[in-house]
Amino acid sequence: MIDAHIHIEKSPYTIDWINEYVRYAQERGLSEINLLEHTHRFTEWMPLYEASRKKDPLAAKWVDDHITIPIQDYYDFIQKAREYNFPIKVNFGLEVCYFPDKNEFIKDMLNEFDFDFVVGSVHYAFDVPYDIKGLSEKILWDKYPVDDIYEDYFDRCMKCVESGLFCQLGHPDTIKMFDSYKPSIDTAPLYEKLADSLHRNNVMAENNVGCYYRYGHPDMGLSDDVFNIFRDKGVKIITASDAHKPEHVGMYIKEITNK
Question: Cβ neighbours of residue 258 under 8 Å, at least 6 residues apart?
């Protein structure tokens, strides 16, 4: 079993800290884990968020508060960790916040480092974050029609998959996390179109349980409808916890692996 989306942002970069992730992974029967960081941690990636920073001052403040360290610190640690003999396979990568007009910037930045994997994730609609409780409601969900938010989100997901920059699409249905904002449109055709693109471009889709245990959404990972669409379209699906601390590594991976 694999947990393909685990954040290591809560501590300084040390082998002892990574071993905490490994310990929980072993306890939950995992044979492989993918550790990563958000691009919104790193100073060099600030240009990625320029449209969002201009769009809304609250979105700008959120980015400014989170971008705190140079990416070289992370990559130097990766090189050190690769020399360590962990008891399970440990991969190191990056989760990129995808913006459609930043393909060349993303490509140039990724070419500077040798990551084991790179996840492309859509966290923004209309250039403001859709998934930050206490913030996104004010700056997005209460300002734009819900159907338009969903359509913009799917357009960005399609462009993310078709960019050729990523091996994995992060949490493809996390747009559902604010369950009180429901679209009136049928989203099945949008997921079918996305599934066709994922299959055509050989990009994996995450079955990510983060919304379930972190935000209380009733779906454990992908909804049954979305999971079936992806499966029937031949999309490669990879299991992910979206853990942000060691004790969440492997959460519900066994359950969704047996789905």
Answer: none
